[in-house]
Write a structure and sequence with these properties.
- The protein has 282 residues and is of the alpha/beta class.
- The protein is 33% helix and 29% strand.
- The protein has ten helices and 13 strands.
- The strands form three sheets. A six-stranded mixed sheet has the order 5-6-7-3-8-9, sandwiched between helices. Strands 11-12-10-13 form a four-stranded antiparallel sheet.
- Helix 4 runs antiparallel to helix 5.
């Protein structure tokens, strides 16, 4: 399990504020929020690249405060960051051999298998790859280290649509034994709606929601219909917006018995939730 307890971290004018979350094993965790909400800072904190000003981070019960534990944490953690980690002058196979020696379970055969699956030539220098190809190479390497946790920061932004399907299939297969977990930060909400079973939602460095996706979907509803009928739910409305053919609102869900029969009631997508929640109070 990945656990954060009372984590505060100030970076310039930005601050992560009192973040306490648990990400159980066997889950694909969607890390979402608007730009500058704290997603990348939270990922860096989980990875030990940013040390909390207050609070603690535990990976499988181990913390970064102990050097031996930190070494064990890094051995079970696969990373696909926004920034490049591999040496631009080395070929992909050279990069694998260079960095693979830091992981006790690195398997070059698995690395080669994924490079082939992802359409990459192992003899190509890393610096000659496109942005999307570089992310594929780093993803292949992360998988070859046999991690327990995969931490992915906006990995699909430069993928073509066809490869996105392969990527999502690999992610789902990675967690199917119930022992491994993925933390996936992405702005592509429809992807996360399809595969995520756990959710962390951040806003301005604070935690809005943390929990399994089904509980989240039980907690909120999108309601559409005539304005006055939607407004009857005023104590439950988070944000309402008048449109050409009626009003649409994000509401706290208290059961279908509260809704007028003429209203359309649906479970919000992550994109709908983010849009309306960010506009609450307007």
């Amino acid at each position: 399990m990945i656990s954060l307890r009372g984590v505060n971290k100030k970076l310039g004018n930005f601050k992560l504020k009192d973040i306490s979350v648990d990400i159980p094993d066997g889950y694909i965790c969607a890390l979402v929020g608007q730009n500058a909400s704290g997603k990348t800072t939270l990922i860096k904190t989980i990875l030990g690249l940013c040390r909390p000003d207050e609070g603690m981070v535990f990976i499988d019960g181990m913390s970064y405060q102990d050097a031996e534990s930190e070494k064990k944490i890094r051995d079970i953690t696969g990373i696909v960051p926004v920034n490049e980690l591999m040496n631009r002058e080395f070929s992909l196979i050279e990069n694998g051999r260079c960095y693979g020696r830091f992981y006790s379970r690195y398997d070059e055969n698995i690395y080669m298998k994924y490079l082939e699956q992802f359409g990459l030539n192992p003899k190509t220098k890393f610096g000659r790859l496109s942005k999307g190809q570089k992310i594929k190479a780093q993803f292949a390497f992360a998988l070859a280290t046999d991690p327990k946790y995969l931490i992915l920061d906006e990995p699909t932004a430069n993928f073509d649509p066809e490869f996105k399907k392969d990527f999502l299939n690999v992610i789902m297969k990675f967690t199917e034994d119930g022992k491994k977990s993925v933390v996936l930060a992405s702005h592509v909400m429809d992807e996360l709606d399809r595969i995520a079973d756990y959710l962390i939602y951040l806003e301005n460095g604070g935690l809005v929601y943390s929990g399994d996706i089904e509980s989240f979907r039980d907690e909120y509803r999108m309601v559409s219909g005539e304005r006055y009928k939607v407004n009857l739910l005023k104590q439950d409305i988070i944000h309402a917006e008048d449109r050409k053919y009626g009003t649409k609102a994000l509401v706290v869900n208290h059961g279908y018995s509260r809704y007028d029969d003429s209203l359309m009631v649906t479970v919000p997508t992550l994109e709908e939730f983010m849009y309306h929640y960010s506009k609450r109070g307007e």
